[in-house]
Amino acid sequence: MRFFFYPTSVAVFGSFKKGAIAYEILKNIVDGGFEGQIIPVNPKGGEIEVAGISFKVAKKLEKNVDVAIIAIPARFVPSLIEEIGDKIKGAVVISAGFSEIGNFALEKELVEKARKKGVKIIGPNCAGIFGVHANFFGSFEVRVKKGGLALISQSGAFGGAALAMGDEEGIGFSAFVSYGNAADLTESDFLEYFADDKNTKVIALYIEGVKDGKKFIKALRYATSKKPVIILKAGKSKSGSKAAQSHTGSLAGSYEIYKAAFQQFGAIEVEEMEELFDAAKVFEMYEKGGKKVAIITNSGGPGVLATDKVERLGLKIAKLTDNTINELREFLPPQCSLKNPIDLIADADYERYKRTIEVVCKDENVDALLVICVPPIFISSEEIAKAIIDAKCNKPIIVNFMAGELVREGIKVLEECGIKNFPTPERAAKALHWLNLRKDFNE
């Protein structure tokens, strides 16, 4: 399936009027800097200009291409596949109007014609695909930065929202695939593919249900043996399960069965979109964590919130050694609390943060650090960000800078050095929880 995500040529089928789906996908491909051959196709022919580049619209596909992206009325899709099947390796069928509205016969015809031609199908009823490292944005969703997260989404709308949110959170993506009705290729195929993709470091999966449970279990076992797999499962409740079936025509099934499979193979199940990205962020930064956490803060309240969350998640507030406490006492003001969480008080500056991180990091009872900064107006967040970056520490440091304009520049400094911010103490604690659950991988 590599040709889907690293294509050298693509044909786009549909209307190329501004605002039409095919036009918007073509524009995204051009604007994204795709360097391969691009062929717009419409029986009316003509010429169009996209981003200052003129294209002749082919009346039919004459040349061989890797991928066809199809956004035409559903009833014409099977015959198009029959017509172009010898010239393409795979097709991304954006068109809706298949099994999701009860039109099973048309979907069956599409798959049968594709298989006769040896063509792989993504969709129908999907939002398209990205091969980010190939600068290929074959979708109408927002383009994203290069990175290591492959996002597999059963829902196109969820996928689009997740891409936008992930981009805001500073996540880099290797690929995105919205697979819609999964008439041919399914979540299982993509799990196995991304498990072996060298640019993918973490796999995130949004599913409502699967059609082939045995195939899914096999793919999940394989993928989780290679890389972290983060799963957001929708349709857990009775009503949610019914809604999932009506949305994509899939079998939602019993949530308990899914949950058992996730736990058995070490997939990380999350409850909400923001958790999916928090898990992805922490996996991008660190390969392993631990249960014993030290919390360093300049504000008592957030420190208490973090402490509560850490313990509720089954992690432990590390008991600092006497040596650590004595070393901290040598340079911290007497008003500071030396128990864990360590409260550096409001006027904590670069030196206080840096030295505290370095001392605590050496403590044999500490596996990971959670560093909180709520800067007063007289201390810049950049100063504290630099302290975290400069501190010599070989253990995971999870950072919570809050909030808004006060910390914007500090967060930017951290991100330039590959350190992601978690905007609340609770989310920072949860990131440590995901990291503790992460398996060791020997790729």
From TrEMBL:
Broad class of enzyme this protein falls into: ligase
Write out the entry's keywords from A to Z.
ATP-binding, Ligase, Nucleotide-binding
Which Pfam family, just one, is annotated for this protein?
CoA_binding_2
Superkingdom of source: Archaea
- Membrane-crossing segments per the record: none
* Every CoA-binding domain range: 4-98
UniProt entry tagged with the keyword ATP-binding: yes
Q: What is its EC number?
A: 6.2.1.13
Named from the GO MF annotations, one term is: ATP binding
The reaction(s) this protein catalyses = acetate + ATP + CoA = acetyl-CoA + ADP + phosphate
Name of this chain's protein: acetate--CoA ligase (ADP-forming)
- Which organism is this protein's natural source? Thermococcus argininiproducens
